[in-house]
Each structure stands twice: as C-alpha cells, then as structure tokens.
Fold these 2 entries.
Entry 1:
Amino acid sequence: MNQDPLILAGKPVRSRLLVGTGKYADFEQTRAAIEASGADIVTVAIRRTNIGQHPDEPSLLDVIPPDRYTLLPNTAGCYTAQDAVRTLRLARELLEGHPLVKLEVLGDPHTLFPNMVETLQAAEILVKEGFQVMVYCSDDPILAKRLEELGCVAIMPLASLIGSGMGILNPWNLGIIIDNARVPVIVDAGVGTASDAAIAMELGCSGVLMNTAIAQARHPVRMAAAMRKAVEAGREAYLAGRMPKKTYQASPSSPTDGLIR
C-alpha cells in the first residue's frame, strides 16, 4: 500500500503522475503509454475525444476503462467561461455524475495561455454546482490563491506554455504558490522531459500532469516509464530534504579528522 498518497478532493490517489490522452498515434499507443506511466488519473478532452457522445465511433473508454482509471474530463479548446461550464455539464452526464473535472479556459489559440478572468468566473459557477474543480491557471500567486478560496480542489499552474516542452521557467512563483496553498499544487503544461518532472516534485509540487512530453517523444511508451520514475524520485528527494547549497565553499565527503600525516 502506498504510504505517501496524493490526497485529492479528500481521496487518496496512488500515483502523483497524471497523464493526458491526446496526440498519440492511435488508441493502442495511448493504452500502452498510460499503462507504462503508472498513472491512476487520466485526463480527457471532451471536445476532442469520444467517450460515448458519438456512439458510431471508436471510444477511448475501450482502451482506458473507467473501472481501472479515474477519468478527468477537461475543457481543452474552450475560450469562455460559458463554453467551459457547458462542456463539463455534458461530461458529468456522460460519466454518470462524475464530479472531478479539470477546468481550463484559454486566452488565445497561439499561446494557449489561460484567460484568468474567464477561469475565475467558470470556477465559481462549477464549484457552486458541486463539481470538484482542478484548475489550470497562470503562475500568479494571487490568482492561484483566489481559485483556492473559491473552492477548487487543486491548483494547476503552468510551468511554461502548453506543448512547449520548455520546463519550469519561473520556479520562484511556483514556490510561492506551493507555500501558500492548502490544496494540492500540480504542475500542468510545459514539461518536456523527465528532469523537468523531477524538478517540479523537488520544489514541493503534489503532482505533475503531462501529455505532449510523453505523446510526442520519439518513444512514447519508454518516455512514459521515465516520467513515472522521475516523479517518484523527485517526490522522494523532496521528502528527504536536499543538502544546503554552499556558495564558494567546498565540503569534503570524507572526514578529515585523524588523517595520517
């Protein structure tokens, strides 16, 4: 049994790596990569992926069964609060009342940076309607705290732009968000390789959500396995506590007392 679970909306989650389902070559590659990642929570773009709303087309649920994974419907492709709320209401119907959702309201199609005004509006509505909202947001500590105060169950600041693979560009803001949060902080967007995921966890993030870094790797299944190990190693390093940095001062690893002269 996992002695260090992620507690999300009051429930323990074994894996701190959350993964997406887009940009894979086919459903079979999606299945293999998600299995290799060890993820328990899998996010699904309701506007782009069939989970039953198109009965005559192949369904993602055939390879990602809801009895094995926790599906996290998201609002990718939404640019207004109204569209995001409508999309998640549909998801709740399709998934028989499933309350856990990922909210993202984008500002423009070029950067995919979050529109925080619309995000705040949508979050307030969804929380009042009983949704458990995990929310994609900018790395502004004030707005992140406001989303928590509205009742969001997880704050998900970007590390860098969605799909950019640029890694964590502003660890200082991320650190402030982590220090001030009483709900899980999960890095969402910008991770490019395993070291990025490990750094996020070493900073104290509760988890990492990624899609492109795995799906667009040369070998997605192998990268999924690497990301699993990186998240686990980063969490262990955070719990262990790193040694202090010593500028301009060396410290020998072996004792110097009693040396033969």
Entry 2:
Amino acid sequence: MNLLECKDLSLGYGTTLIQEKLNLSIQKGGYIFILGENGSGKSTLVKTMLGFIKPFAGTIEYSPDWKKKGLGYLPQTSEIQKTFPATVKEIVLSGFQADLGLLPFYKKQHYEKARQNLERVGMQNYIGHSFKELSGGQQQRVLFARALCAASSVLVMDEPAKGFDSDAVKNMYQIVSELNKQGLTVITISHDQEAAQKYATQIITLQKREALK
C-alpha cells in the first residue's frame, strides 16, 4: 500500500526548477532511502512532501494513513537553530505538541517516553541542560530524540549522519531499523549507499536535471 504518490511533480525553490515530472510513490511501512548527488533536489522533494514547499506543477496524493500528527522530522544540521533558549527536556517534550490538542499540558506518558528516547540516544544525563550549551553532535541527538517522540507513524530524516559520530550513526540505524520493523514508515535522505543496501526496502535515486537532458 502506498502512503503517498507523486504524479508529474515539478519542484524547486524560488524560481529555480530542480526536478520536473517526477513520478514516484512511498510505501507504507517501508524504509525508504532517497539518494542522489548534491543539487539533485532530495531535500526539496521531502520538504514538498511535507508541505513546507509548494510544487511548481503536478500533484501529491496522500493516503488517509499520512497524518501530520504522527510525523517526526529531523532536519539537516545546517537548518537547526543551535542557540534556542530551552532545556533538553523542553526540546524533546515539544515533539508531543501535536498530541496536546486544546489542553497544553504534557501527560505522564509524555515525560516517560521523552526520558526513554533520550536514553536511547545516550543523552539522558543532559535532560536539565541548556540546549544551546551542547555540542553540535549532542544537539543533533537531542533533536533525534524529539523526532522519535513525534513519530508514531512516519519518521523523516534529512542526512542525519552528518551530525553524528560513528557510534551515534550506528546507534541511529539500530533504533530506526527496530522501529521500522514495528511498522514505522521511515524516509531518509542520505549519501550512504552502504546503509541503503543494508536497510532499505525502497531506494529512490534522484539525478540532476542536467544529467537527464
């Protein structure tokens, strides 16, 4: 079953066209790797799927199982606000904001899941620390924990390995692979072809428009 389908999709940013007439689908419950060289539109494609960017042309059809409420997103490290004035605890708990509804109060299960996800990424001892005082790699792990809190149905990650050391990368793949086996749909932008061959149930490879002409 497809979670979403892109039909004759043309996309870019500003007035710059990056890809045109893309036709592809994302499988529900899959572990999808989006590969391609820099400038091929990997991040732009994902941001268009997420609704952050409007397509130039074409359509994206979503199944009822695509729900923003259950979507976790880990952006590229370059897009992260590294001086955000909040504690690690506050950052990770914010992953549950879509669950709060009209009552802006976190519940016991939110605190427990936040603690569990911080432990998963090895940041449980920093729960009361200021986010802006952490190293770049530590901040990335905290934001990974936040994305895990938000991701009850879909997890989207944009080149997460760029912000992790080798041990953190290995741990990330283990965590995500386990969650995928439990039914979580995972969409990962990556340059890591070895990881794609090992984990992916679906590989989407983008080429630059110049290479397609």
